[in-house]
Amino acid sequence: MATILIIDDDDAFREGLAETVQDLGYSSSEARSGDEAFEQLRGRSAPDCIFLDFRLPGADGLAVLETLRKTPGLQTVPVVMLTAHATSDNTIGAMRLGAFEHLTKPVGREEIAALLERILSAQRETPAARGFADEATSREPQLLGASEAMREVQKRLGRAAGGNSTVLITGETGTGKEIAASVLHRASARASGPFVAVNCAAIPDDLLESELFGHGKGAFTGAQADRRGRVEEAHGGTLFLDEVGDMPLSMQAKLLRVLQERQVTPLGTNRIVTVDVRVVAATHRDLASMVEAGTFRQDLLFRLNVIPLHMPPLRERVADILPLAEHFLASASSDVARKHLSADAQRLLATFAWPGNVRELANAIERASALAPGQVLTRDDFAFLTATPDSANDAIPPALLELPLPQAVAQLERALIVHALSAAGGNRTEAARRLGISRQSLYTRMAAQGMSEASA
Q1: Where, by residue number, does the polypeptide cross the bilayer (predicted)?
Q2: Mean pLDDT in runs of 10 for the chain (456 residues)?
């Protein structure tokens, strides 16, 4: 039978709450102050839950809660703070110290029953995921995974680490491409050299050449001194080009030359710098399709794709989801107040689609851990994963699904034009801006749709 400790100096309220707790089938014990409570707890088993009033003789409720969180055997006991006058300070203070809940008196029987069921049912859940207990702890990023898909990635990465060939890492956003590149660098003979990462998608096109190859003084406005590029900075180590599929065609040609000759010429100079770098590139894009569309150079793809390494999406490595979740939870929790996943939370995480992959899982665990009131994270703590906004306006009308693609696209385009014109009050310049096209392109599309001034 679960035991509930009630610490409150209001005799009537304390006795009434104890009676309610007993009527609900639990055992109760009472104390009028923090000192009395600690005296009772000395040498006894920890209670399953503590109701703690803010205003107490001697040390107040927040001080008692802080002491509980430092007392061995009591750090993880769920504490429900009680107050007759809730303020932002006492509420925030209680939650900062790890209170499970904060209630304002008077408290109804149904609220007490629901709260205790929530607390005690979470405690009854037995965590099943083991995590990656056999993995050596490291401050460096780790490529964790025991699924067959990740085992293959780890094997190929290990083989690639033995040479200097260029590696192309593909995979959806959030699958850990940069981590794989970092692990490859640390496992290679270049581990003592620099690991230089460049996100090609995050740098404006007109600055990317200077960023990669450097520049001389006076090469452009604002170039006050010579500057080494990231390629030169990676000399003796590894250059990681993230989102290489977003690199403009003009830069692709220059990168190809660097890969072929292992030389760079800083912008605005005639100086040639010989570099010894291993290039690891990554992208979430389909480069083969981009080659067919003429937006990515085929010869550069050949140069980059010497050793291909594909990072599988999380939905294809289900066996890794719960161990990864426990790993992230251990990182987010303190050693004293280690949190765990309930069985219902584990079921949710294991069956969720994870469109953001490992990055989304790590974010979800950190968010739930930071906001969960108890030591056991339940399905309710991950409600944000399944709470999707109303997508009625985003759904494809069933009628369009039955049409040939050209006809369906034409109907959709017409509807978008009509909507943009309506939202812009008939102003075609504004409508074109909303659609992200030029005004002339809007006129051309309207003419192709047979849309006159009146029909628009």
Answers
A1: none
A2: 94 94 94 94 91 94 92 89 83 83 90 90 60 63 85 91 94 94 94 95 88 82 82 95 93 92 87 93 93 94 95 90 90 72 88 92 94 86 75 54 72 84 82 81 84 56
